[in-house]
Amino acid sequence: MDVTNIAKLATSMAETGNRQEVGLAVLKRAQDIEKASATQLIESLAAVPQAQSLPAHLGNTINTKA
After folding, report:
1. Within a 10 A sphere around the Cβ of 60, how many other Cβ atoms?
2. How large is the C-alpha radius of gyration of the chain?
3. What are φ and ψ of residue 59, in 5° steps?
4. Phi/psi class of residue 59: alpha, beta or left (left: φ > 0; alpha: ψ in -120 to 50)?
5. How many other CB atoms are found less than 10 A from the CB of residue 20?
6. Per residue in 8-52, pLDDT tens?
7. What pLDDT band is residue 57 in, cutting at 50, 70 and 90?
8. End-to-end CA distance of the chain
9. Can you tell me the mean pLDDT for 47-62?
10. Nearest-5° angle of CA 5, CA 8, CA 13?
11. From CA 29, how far away is CA 35, in angstroms rounded?
């Protein structure tokens, strides 16, 4: 093998490794943002006031003839 080919191969491998590291860092950041958004959404659902109490018989049947 020629020395220049070995140098080119080493440089190519290093660049590929850097690209993978950057891609992984971006993916982790995106996952962190999604996690924060999901957590915020879940917490906002817990803060929604409960609906007024309705009689127990409401919502038990469906009118299929309407």
Report:
1. 6
2. 29
3. 85, 10
4. left
5. 10
6. 888 888 888 888 899 999 999 999 999 999 999 988 887 666 667
7. confident
8. 83
9. 73
10. 125
11. 10
Token couple for 64: 């299929």
pTM of the model as a whole: 0.53
Six-digit token string for 17: 């490794």
Helix (H, G, I), strand (E, B) or coil at 56: coil
Per-residue model confidence (pLDDT) at position 50: 64
Taking the CA atoms of residue 30, residue 35, residue 41 and residue 45 in that order, the dihedral angle to the nearest 10 degrees is 170
Q: What does the block give as tokens for 54?
A: 């309705």
Pull the structure tokens for residue 20. Answer: 């993978």
